């Protein structure tokens, strides 16, 4: 029996459709049974014949009923499915989702994964968007499919920028535009030969890169880092190592810069072992007291460096756009492997960023960010200056974060909990270590991209109150 609820917002034809479908699935309407004609059912239900026809049409489209000439519709054969009716889908979904613990209200989130909204170049972005819409319309590109490498307009302008700022040496055909560092790494994992499935990685290092390698069933082996960067002499002798993942210009998370001598040692190691170096140059543009150091790729003469970059740090994490520069040997493998792929990066966003670079607005924006971030870092240092014998700020005037190390015994989980009670969210360093036991328990990760300059004194005052036992 079909019962219609006319107060329900669901269309009447969908109510008819759903109830007939349910009866077929439950075996109430048997296979081959003739359904009531549309005129007759419309009269019984007090609806128009078109409403019934719409319901029957949907059922027929999905294969639940079959039109029979001269008869009407008959029920189709539908395999029986064992369906648990003990819990609704919401309950099953809730069980699958991670448990979220209620946290205190957060006034200051000291992350480096987000930024204060005033940092986004809204005025320039809006202007360039309008200009690029006209450009795309004039080029008849606004509704076109994109090549897998990304737009040539962006690749040409990006190449010019990287040559000037980072000393990168390549051709625009070597540049691949991606949705960010993790997609770049995901692509790379599919380019390495099956017999070489080990990647060497800095310890500590970028945990989200390690997650990509792990999800691609790549074996990860750790290499220690000291005050001069990755210790090249400690690179393990692994015959199936395809690459080493490194952040030479600003090691994540320690902040150290790979020394010149070790840069050449690393290149020599890659050549001798027929391996690649994945150079993640994630925030090299942000140096507050010196000029940016040229990329490792700029001194590579044997095509061993895979250069990785992102726009997320300079523009916004929500832009989700990055790029990689492939050596010729890997570029050939890329074209073969991803022959039938299209770019997943929005065309308009590629044009907008290309236009920002072309007009010089991107350079001006980066200079502005350097000024803002330098002042924020200095303000944190000033506010903590009187406790520097109990807290060490680790950083070399680069990036959007610093590490805090307490002089005495401390547990980072306890420090994080106490800070949260005061409305400040700080982050553990444990996540950056594969060997958790090796992580100093008295260290924390603090970003300053998402806190305004004027809020820093109040934030530090809250941290002082939270950590009075340790400082």
UniProtKB/TrEMBL annotation:
Taken from the record, one Pfam family name reads GntR
Q: Can you give the residue ranges of the HTH gntR-type domain? A: 10-78
Output this protein's name: Transcriptional regulator, GntR family
- Domain of life of the organism encoding this protein: Bacteria
Q: Name one GO molecular function term.
A: pyridoxal phosphate binding
List the SMART domains: HTH_GNTR
Keyword list (alphabetical) reads: DNA-binding, Pyridoxal phosphate, Transcription, Transcription regulation
Kindly give the InterPro entries that the UniProt entry links to this protein: Aminotransferase_I/II_large, HTH_trans_reg/aminotransferase, PyrdxlP-dep_Trfase, PyrdxlP-dep_Trfase_major, Tscrpt_reg_HTH_GntR, WH-like_DNA-bd_sf, WH_DNA-bd_sf
Family annotation (SUPFAM superfamilies): PLP-dependent transferases, Winged helix' DNA-binding domain
Coiled-coil blocks: none
Query: Which organism is this protein's natural source?
Result: Anaerostipes caccae (strain DSM 14662 / CCUG 47493 / JCM 13470 / NCIMB 13811 / L1-92)
Q: PANTHER family annotated for this entry?
A: HTH-TYPE TRANSCRIPTIONAL REGULATORY PROTEIN GABR
């Amino acid at each position: 029996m079909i019962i219609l609820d006319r107060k329900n917002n669901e269309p009447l034809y969908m109510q008819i459709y759903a109830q007939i479908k349910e009866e077929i699935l439950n075996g109430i309407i048997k296979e081959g049974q003739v359904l009531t004609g549309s005129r007759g059912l419309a009269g019984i239900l007090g609806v128009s014949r078109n409403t019934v026809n719409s319901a029957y049409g949907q059922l027929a489209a999905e294969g639940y009923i079959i039109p029979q000439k001269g008869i009407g519709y008959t029920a189709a054969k539908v395999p029986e499915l064992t369906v648990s009716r003990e819990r609704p889908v919401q309950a099953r979904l809730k069980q699958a989702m991670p448990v979220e613990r209620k946290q205190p209200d957060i006034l200051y989130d000291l992350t480096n994964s987000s930024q204060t909204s005033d940092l986004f170049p809204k005025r320039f972005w809006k202007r360039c968007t309008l200009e690029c819409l006209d450009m795309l319309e004039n080029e008849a590109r606004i509704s076109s499919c994109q090549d897998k490498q990304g737009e040539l307009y962006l690749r040409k302008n990006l190449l010019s920028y990287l040559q000037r700022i980072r000393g990168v040496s390549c051709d625009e055909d070597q540049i691949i535009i991606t949705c960010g560092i993790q997609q770049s790494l995901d692509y790379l994992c599919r380019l390495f030969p099956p017999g070489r499935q080990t990647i060497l990685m800095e310890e500590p290092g970028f945990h989200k890169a390690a997650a990509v390698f792990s999800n691609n069933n790549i074996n990860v082996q750790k290499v220690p880092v000291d005050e001069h960067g990755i210790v090249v002499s400690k690179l393990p002798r692994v015959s199936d190592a395809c690459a080493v993942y490194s952040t030479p210009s600003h090691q994540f998370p320690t902040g150290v810069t790979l020394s010149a001598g070790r840069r050449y040692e690393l290149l020599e190691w890659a050549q001798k072992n027929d391996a690649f170096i994945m150079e993640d140059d994630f925030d090299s543009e942000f140096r507050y007291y010196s000029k940016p150091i040229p990329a490792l790729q700029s001194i590579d003469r044997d095509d061993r460096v895979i250069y990785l970059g992102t726009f997320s740090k300079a523009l916004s994490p929500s832009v989700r756009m990055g790029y990689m520069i492939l050596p010729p040997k890997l570029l050939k493998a890329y074209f073969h492997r991803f022959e039938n792929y299209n770019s997943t990066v929005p065309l308009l966003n590629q044009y907008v960023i290309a236009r920002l670079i072309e007009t010089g607005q991107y350079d001006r924006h980066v200079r502005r960010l350097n000024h803002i971030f330098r002042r924020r870092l200095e303000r944190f240092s000033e506010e903590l200056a009187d406790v520097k014998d109990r807290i060490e700020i680790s950083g070399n005037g680069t990036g959007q974060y610093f590490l805090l190390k307490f002089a005495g015994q401390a547990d980072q989980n306890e420090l994080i909990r106490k800070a949260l009670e005061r409305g400040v969210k700080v982050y553990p360093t444990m996540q950056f270590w594969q060997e958790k036991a090796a992580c100093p328990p008295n260290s924390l990760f603090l970003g300053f991209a998402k806190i305004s300059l004027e809020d820093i004194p109040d934030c530090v005052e809250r941290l002082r109150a939270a950590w009075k036992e340790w400082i």
